[in-house]
User: Which sequence fits this backbone?
C-alpha cells in the first residue's frame, strides 16, 4: 500500500492525533458534559474545515450529521475520519442546497473558498442554522453586509473564524495597549511576509472525476481547472479570494479595529503589483495566479494612520517577525505577533516586556477551541459572540477596501456609515460583482 499523501494523512486519525497533539486541550478539559448536542454540518471539508470540525467534536456539543464538499475524495476521507472520531458516519452531499433541504441543520460550519462564504452563510441562516463561518465574510463588501443583515433578521449566532480575537496573548496584549502601556499610538503597521520568486504558468488540466468544478466556481467566472487552485491555492486567484490581503490581512487589520474601537477608515490607498511573480497569464492552455505579490495599503483614521504591507518574497529574519502588527506609541513600540507572542520595546531603555503565546495546537498555532466554546455558549445564552459577524464584516471591509483601491490604481474615500464611496461611482461599482448564472447576488 502506498503511504498516505499529505491530505490523506491530515484527514486520517493519525494525522488528527498529530494535529491535536493527541490530547484534549486545557480549555476543553475544564468543561462539563454539554446538555444539548446540535445537529451539525460542515460545508467545505478541506484542510481548515476539518480542523474546526475536530475541535467541535472534542468540545462535545455537536452531532455531526452531514458533510458537504464538491470534491468527492475530500468527502470520503473526511466522513471516514468523522466516523472514527464519533462512531457515526455522517451523510455526505455535494450540493449544500440539497443538504439544507434534506437535513435539519442547527449548526453549519462553512470553510469553503472565500467566494462562497456569504452565499452559503446566508442560505444556512435562512434555513435556521447558527453559523461558524471562516473569514473573510465576503468576497465583495455588499455580500458580506448581506450576511450580517441575514444574521440579524433571523436572529442567528454567527461566529467568524477570527481566533485572534480570543487567543490568550492577543487578549492580554490588547489589555496592555488599551491600558496605555505603549502610550499614545499614532501609527500601526500590519504585515505578512513570506519567501517566493517568479511564477511560471502551470498547464491547465481536465477536471478530475472526483471534482464538480462548476459547483466549485459557483458564482465566480468559470476558469479552466488547474491543480494550483484546488486544494488550498484559490487564495491567490482573485475570482475566488483576495490574495494575501484578503487572507492574512483580515486577522491583522482586525487587531487594529479591536485596539482602536474604530469601525472604518475614511481614506484608503493601495499600491503593489507582481514585479517578482511576473505577469498574469490566463488562457485555455495555462495560467498563473493573479493576486499581487506585494502590496502596501494606507488607511487614514481620524486619530491614527495604519499601514498594511505584504510581500511574497524576501521574508526573512532581518525584520525579526514575518507576521503581525507594530503599534508605534509615545512610550515605545509594541509588536503583536503570532508564534512569537507579544513584545513591548520601551523608549526609555527599561526592560523589554514579553508574553509568550499559548495555543491549543502548537503545529497549527491557532486558538479555535475557545472560539468554538464561545460560539456554543452564545447560542445557549442568546448573546453576540466574540468574533460576531459584524466584527468579521468590518475587518473584511478593511481588506476589501484595500483591494478596491488596488484595482482602481488610486485612493478612495469611504463613508463607513452608509458603506459607500460618496460621489465615486467607479468605486461604488466594485462593492459588488456580477455573479455567474444561475447564482444571484445577495441583497
Ligand atoms: N481562521 C484561520 O486562521 C484560517 C486558517 C486557514 C484557512 N482559513 C479559511 O478556511 C477556508 C478554507 O481554506 P482551506 O485552506 O481549508 O481550503 P481547502 O481548499 O483545503 O478547502 C476548501 C474546501 O471547500 C470545498 N468547496 C469548494 N466549493 C465548494 C462548495 N460550493 N460547496 C462545498 N464545498 C466546496 C473544496 O472542494 C475544498 O475541499 C478559507 O476561507 C480560508 O480563508 C482560515
Assistant:
Amino acid at each position: 500500500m502506498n503511504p498516505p499523501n499529505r491530505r490523506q494523512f491530515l484527514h486520517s486519525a493519525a494525522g488528527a492525533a498529530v494535529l491535536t497533539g493527541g490530547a484534549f486541550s486545557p480549555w476543553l478539559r475544564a468543561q462539563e458534559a454539554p446538555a444539548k448536542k446540535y445537529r451539525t454540518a460542515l460545508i467545505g471539508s478541506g484542510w481548515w474545515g476539518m480542523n474546526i470540525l475536530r475541535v467541535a467534536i472534542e468540545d462535545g456539543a455537536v452531532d455531526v450529521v452531514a458533510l458537504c464538499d464538491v470534491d468527492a475524495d475530500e468527502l470520503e476521507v473526511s466522513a471516514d475520519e468523522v466516523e472514527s472520531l464519533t462512531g457515526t458516519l455522517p451523510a455526505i452531499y455535494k450540493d449544500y442546497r440539497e443538504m439544507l433541504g434534506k437535513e435539519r441543520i442547527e449548526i453549519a460550519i462553512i470553510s469553503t473558498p472565500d467566494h462562497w462564504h456569504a452565499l452559503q452563510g446566508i442560505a444556512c441562516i435562512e434555513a435556521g442554522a447558527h453559523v461558524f463561518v471562516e473569514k473573510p465574510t465576503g468576497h465583495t463588501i455588499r455580500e458580506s453586509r448581506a450576511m450580517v443583515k441575514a444574521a440579524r433578521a433571523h436572529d442567528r449566532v454567527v461566529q467568524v473564524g477570527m481566533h485572534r480575537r480570543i487567543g490568550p496573548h492577543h487578549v492580554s496584549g490588547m489589555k496592555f495597549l488599551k491600558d496605555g502601556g505603549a502610550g499614545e499610538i499614532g501609527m500601526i503597521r500590519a504585515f505578512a511576509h513570506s519567501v517566493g520568486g517568479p511564477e511560471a504558468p502551470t498547464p491547465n488540466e481536465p477536471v478530475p472525476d472526483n471534482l464538480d468544478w462548476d459547483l466549485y466556481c459557483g458564482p465566480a467566472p468559470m476558469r479552466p481547472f488547474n491543480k494550483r487552485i484546488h486544494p488550498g491555492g484559490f487564495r491567490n486567484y482573485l475570482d475566488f479570494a483576495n490574495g494575501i490581503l484578503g487572507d492574512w490581512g483580515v486577522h491583522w487589520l482586525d487587531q487594529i479595529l479591536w485596539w482602536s474601537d474604530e469601525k472604518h477608515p475614511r481614506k484608503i490607498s493601495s499600491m503593489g503589483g507582481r514585479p517578482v511573480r511576473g505577469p498574469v497569464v490566463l488562457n485555455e492552455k495555462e495560467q498563473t495566479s493573479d493576486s499581487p505579490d506585494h502590496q502596501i495599503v494606507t488607511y487614514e483614521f481620524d486619530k491614527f494612520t495604519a499601514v498594511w504591507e505584504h510581500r511574497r518574497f524576501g521574508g526573512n529574519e532581518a525584520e525579526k517577525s514575518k507576521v503581525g502588527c507594530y503599534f508605534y506609541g509615545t512610550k515605545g513600540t509594541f509588536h503583536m505577533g503570532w508564534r512569537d507572542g507579544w513584545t513591548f520595546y520601551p523608549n526609555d531603555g527599561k526592560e523589554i516586556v514579553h508574553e509568550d503565546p499559548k495555543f491549543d495546537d502548537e503545529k497549527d498555532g491557532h486558538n479555535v477551541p475557545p472560539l468554538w466554546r464561545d460560539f456554543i455558549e452564545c447560542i445557549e445564552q442568546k448573546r453576540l459572540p466574540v468574533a460576531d459577524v459584524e466584527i468579521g464584516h468590518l475587518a473584511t471591509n478593511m481588506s476589501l477596501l484595500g483591494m478596491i483601491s488596488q484595482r482602481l490604481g488610486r485612493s478612495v474615500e469611504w463613508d463607513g456609515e452608509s458603506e459607500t464611496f460618496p460621489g465615486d461611482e467607479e468605486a461604488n461599482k466594485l462593492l459588488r460583482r456580477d455573479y455567474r448564472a444561475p447564482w444571484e447576488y445577495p441583497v
